[in-house]
Amino acid sequence: MKIDEVKKLLMERVKVAEDPRSVLRAKELRGLYGEIAKLPAEERGGFGRKVNELKVELEGMIVEIEAERESAAVEAIDVTAPMGVNGKLPELMTAESSSRHPLMVEIERVADIYQKMGFEVVESRQLDDDFHMFGALNFPDGHPARDGYDTFRTSEGFIPPAHTSTMQYRVLTAGREKLEAGGQIAVVVPGRVFRNEDVDATHEHTFYQCEGVFVSKDATLGQMLGVLREFFETYYGQKLKIRTQPGYFPFTEPSLEFAIEKPASLGGKGDGWLEMLGCGMIHPNVLKTAGIDPEVYKGFAWGGGIERLVMLKYGIDDIRWFESGKLKFLKEF
Ligand code: DAH
Question: In angstroms, rounded to a whole number, what is the distance separating the alpha carbons of residues 22 and 13?
């Protein structure tokens, strides 16, 4: 067969062959190679080169055809189709199915309970500054209480908030108009907080808190305890014993620490008290800084860790599980 005829034939065949590469082994091509040896010496070089050129050309076509077919095969997967369509699961979809992180689910539950009690939910932020972290909260400059918060600081001097109380100033100033119109401020702020401290079973450098702020003309500590009892009893779905003891926070006066007795249903033996949050009447200086007259308005506020709440609910023994990313843990929810 003439070389041009073989070329024409094989080029057609490459286009339709199921395995285009098999064309490189076609007997017609092998035949051309066989002919080289039979040619007179002076013709061998020229003919040999032509046969090689043909082979190279065929290889180029094959690579192109393979690439084309591969991309056509990829496009054929409809990513919007339900899983398992055509009875064939794409590789990816055979991986573990995903789910929401238990903490996110619980934070929503917390916010939902407060919302049903009439509180508005405001988001916190993950980068804040000295004023919102300390100044607006009545921490005097250089006061040792500032050190108690183990704050991180960026090289520009910003502070990833070490508690959700950084939002108090914003909540208070934003609520001023409502107060002046005869209303009240009732806001909760769930948010992520950061502390530069050693990590162990009960301490994380990154965790969540929920802050609460209430201001009206006649807010009282009694009202605050009512709100907190209502929240905890709803969250745990049962009556609880609560206890407070004096605490210290620069932004509340008086300041209290609020504890609940670990119920038997949650593994308690009727003896252990669990510190759940800090709270108190908002310090007059905090109201004043936010432009609210403490002679006219009273407020209470509270803030506590969310992990601790969730750990008690589900009997989780180590706070590090939450940020571990371990499927063994996540799958339990
Ligand atoms: N921010 C405090 C902390 O992280 C908790 C706290 C105490 C929040 C008293 C408050 C409050 O709103 O009134 O330790």
Answer: 10
Question: Please, which pLDDT band fits residue 71 given cuts at 50, 70 and 90?
Answer: confident
235 lines ligand 1 (CB under 6 A): no
Give the 3-state DSSP-derived string for 116-154, with helices as H, strands as E and coil as C.
Answer: HCCCEECCCCCCECHHHHCHHHCCCCCCHHHHHHCCCCC
Nearest ligand 1 atom to alpha carbon 304: 5
Q: Is 250 in the pocket of ligand 1 (CB under 6 A)?
A: no
Structure confidence at residue 154 (pLDDT): 95
CA nearest 133: which of 122, 145, 121, 117?
145
Q: Is 280 in the pocket of ligand 1 (CB under 6 A)?
A: yes
Write the pLDDT tens digit of every residue in 244-256: 999 999 999 999 9
Instruction: Please tell me the distance between residue 209's alpha carbon and the centre of ligand 1 in angstroms.
Output: 9
CA dist 160 and 153 (Å) reads 7
